Amino acid sequence: MREPDQTPDLNKGAAVYHNDIGDYATNEPTMDGTAGLTYYFASLEQEGNKQKNLGSGLDAKLVRDSEGAIVRIDSTAKNIYLIFSADSMFNGGEKIVETLKKERIRASFFFTGNSLRMPEHKEIIEKIISMGNYVSGHSDKHVLYAPWGKRDSLIVSRDSIVKDIRQNAAELAKFGIAQKDSRWFLSPYEYYNNETVNILERAGYKTINYTPGTATPADYTIPSMKEYKTAQYLIDKLFSYEKKNTLNGAIILIHPGIEATRPEGQRLYNRLREIVDYLKGKGYSFKSFKDLQ
């Protein structure tokens, strides 16, 4: 050693360390360990960047809204992403599966833990998965993250959001859906703010939402509501939006679970094939989020 030991009281055992550049016997192993740890952290950073960038420059093509959620995938490609979100109701499941099969297309389904736990949903969910559709989370308990009309605050804590997401992931795992294969996330009620988007991002998820202006999410409304919209109104609005704006990279949401008081003929999932055929005629292809893995 070149200098007197500055920490003699700490170096009385079999393993010692002297903070001196001349003491290679004790500080070289520590340097070697630090180098190894640096290498390990670098590999983790590389893997993290792959998740962040989503590969092949896709991240640069994503269109986000003011809160940071992804509302279009790539506005230069004539691809449409059909999505379906389900909580406790799923009365349109069979009709949707039938249409996807006939049209030979795949879609993306986002389930709450509530839905995944229901025995009556098990068979249809397994069928959806076996057909190669993308399946991911929609929260566990379908909790509202932010108050309506006051988007800059939270109703629930950050920890409870993370816990809820993890519980949702645990239910998906029971169907063989690994977390790494379910990174695209649809917030409950399709409602969120910048903070929840960031919480989800840190947990490894990408928050998505339907493309604004597509109108179809209003298919949940029932006749007793002032804002009730018929199926034809929603279809007309969607097609009108396409003419003015295109649906390149658009995310189109249709609810597979509808209140019984909405007439059967007004449930949008019953007219899904009509929508798909029209848009195919316009030159669009239908993709699922599995195509982005």
Account of the protein in words:
It is built from eight helices and nine strands. The protein is α/β, with parallel strands linked by helices and 293 residues long. The protein is elongated. The relative contact order is 0.16. Helices cover 37% and strands 11% of the residues. The longest helix is centred in the first third of the chain and has 30 residues, at 24-53. The strands form three sheets. Strands 3, 4, 5, 8 and 9 form a five-stranded parallel β-sheet that branches. A two-stranded antiparallel ribbon has the order 1-2. Strands 6-7 form a two-stranded parallel sheet.
What's the total number of strands?
Answer: 9
**End-to-end separation:** 56 Å
Largest sheet: 5 strands, parallel
Strand share of the residues?
A: 5-15%
Unreliable parts = none
- The overall pLDDT average reads 89
- The geometry reads as elongated
Helix content: 25-40%
Gyration radius from CA atoms, angstroms: 25 Å
Helical stretch tally: 8
Q: Helices and strands, in N-to-C order?
A: HEEEHEHHEHEHEHEHE
By secondary-structure content and strand pairing, the structural class works out as alpha/beta
